[in-house]
Structures are given as C-alpha cells and as structure tokens.
Amino acid sequence: ETGVTQTPRHLVMGMTNKKSLKCEQHLGHNAMYWYKQSAKKPLELMFVYNFKEQTENNSVPSRFSPECPNSSHLFLHLHTLQPEDSALYLCASSQGGGGTGELFFGEGSRLTVL
Amino acid sequence: KQEVTQIPAALSVPEGENLVLNCSFTDSAIYNLQWFRQDPGKGLTSLLLIQSSQREQTSGRLNASLDKSSGRSTLYIAASQPGDSATYLCAVRRGELIFGTGTRLQVFP
User: Fold this and answer.
1) Do the Cβ atoms of B96 and A102 come within 8 Å?
2) Looking at beta carbons, which residues of chain B come within 8 Å of A46?
3) Nearest to B21 by CA among B102, B107, B108
4) Can you tell me the distance from the alpha carbon of A19 to that of A78, in angstroms, rounded to the nearest whole number?
5) Cα separation of A22 and A100, whole Å?
6) How many CA atoms lie within 13 A of B103 on its CB side?
7) pLDDT tens-digit profile of B41-86?
8) pLDDT class for B95, splitting at 50, 70, 90?
9) Under DSSP, is residue A83 helix (H, G, I), strand (E, B) or coil?
10) What is the rounded distance in angstroms from the CA atom of residue B51 to the CA atom of residue B61?
11) How many CB pairs below 8 A link A and B?
12) Is B96 in Cβ contact with A42 (below 8 Å)?
C-alpha cells in the first residue's frame, strides 16, 4: 500500500463536465497539498490544508474547488475547466504544514480537458 | 521572491559515470531542501531531505550537499545506472515548497 494514493490516474473531461480528483494518505500526516504540473513549468502549489483547515490558496481560479473532510482525504472538484487546465495534478502530504516536514507525493492524476 | 534554478536541464551519460546535478536558489532563508526523482508520467519520489542546519545527506549511491549561504545544493550520483534515468527535481522550503524545473537524466548502457 503506497503512502499517498490518487484516483483516477487519468481523466478526460469536456469543458462543461464536473469531476473530482481524490487523494488519500496512509502516513498519519496532518498536512495535505495539491500541486499542478504543466509541461515545461515548475510545479505550482495550488492549495494547502493543515488539520483539515485550508491555510493557503495560491490565487487558484474558482473552477478548482478543494475539499478536505479529514486529515487523510483530500479532493479537488473540477467544474467548467479550460483546455489550459490540462496537466498532471499531484497530491502530497507532510507531518506539519509549517514548512519543515518532508513531503511525500502520490502518482498524480493526468487531466485532459477537451 | 524565491527562484530555484537547476543546471543542466538535460544530461546524457554512459553507465558507470559519477554525476553532479546542480540546484541554486535566490533566497537563503530556507527551512530545508528536498531532492526528488520523477519518472515519466509518474509522481515524485523523495530522495533526500536536508534541513537548513545540515551540510549533507547520503542515501546509498546518492549524496546531497547544501551550502545555504551561497544558495546552492548539489546531488551527486555515484556509478550511474540505466535505472537512474529520470527527471531530478530540487525544491526549497520556507512555508511553501518552491521547485526548480528539473534536470532530465538519461544513463545509457
């Protein structure tokens, strides 16, 4: 069982669809993150949750809506996306969101928006 | 604003060579630096974490050093193997983890 599990691994959606990405961590961590990885660009932090509370939102458009029901689960709800939102979305977790803990990543969800 | 640069962007070497990958950052006020490996289409695997008070960390054939005052880190890979082929990312952390664009490494037999 891997430490951080993401589903689905691949997702194709139209611009009017609503879908969700799911992340689950089995490491007992209390901080979870969503990152976006586009071609030729560094990873971009999207959202941070500490103890289920959102502590950071890096100016992400409202068509991306995160949800963290508990410290082990994190969702990214997707609605009316644009083709430029096609990317690899990576979830990560760490022990402590204060900036000192080691981050562990999932395998990512490859999103294609048509 | 923190910026992280990795040089070279790509590297192709024969098996057995010792390698040095470079990472530089503009703001030395960091908590730690982490090196990751990413295989094509996959997530990131943490290789080494160096806290700001440390100078280096070692794991197997990998050794990472940190010179915070000069804003530099190096990842040394000894006796490279084809299985080491991947993209290597460094990231620095003070709150948010800021990533470089990576070095794409190919080790051929």
Assistant:
1) no
2) none
3) B102
4) 5
5) 25
6) 27
7) 889 999 999 999 999 999 999 999 999 999 999 999 999 999 999 9
8) confident
9) helix
10) 20
11) 53
12) no
Q: What six digits make up the tokens of B15?
A: 């098996």
Amino acid present at A5:
T
Cα-based angle A82, A88, A90 (whole degrees, multiple of 5)? 120
Q: What's the number of CA atoms in the CB half-sphere (13 Å) around residue A74?
A: 33
Average pLDDT, chain B: 94
Q: Tens of pLDDT along chain A (114 residues)? A: 569 999 999 999 988 889 999 999 999 999 999 999 998 788 999 999 988 777 777 789 999 999 999 989 999 999 999 999 999 999 999 987 666 788 999 999 999 999
For chain A, what's the residue count? 114
**pLDDT on residue A55:** 78
Residue B51 burial (10 A CB sphere; 0-12, 13-18, 19+): middle
Whether A105 and B95 lie within 8 Å, measured CB to CB: no
Tokens of A107: 């395998």
Q: Which of B34, B42, B98 sits opposite A102 (nearest CB)?
A: B34
List phi, psi (to 5°) of B83. Answer: -65, -10
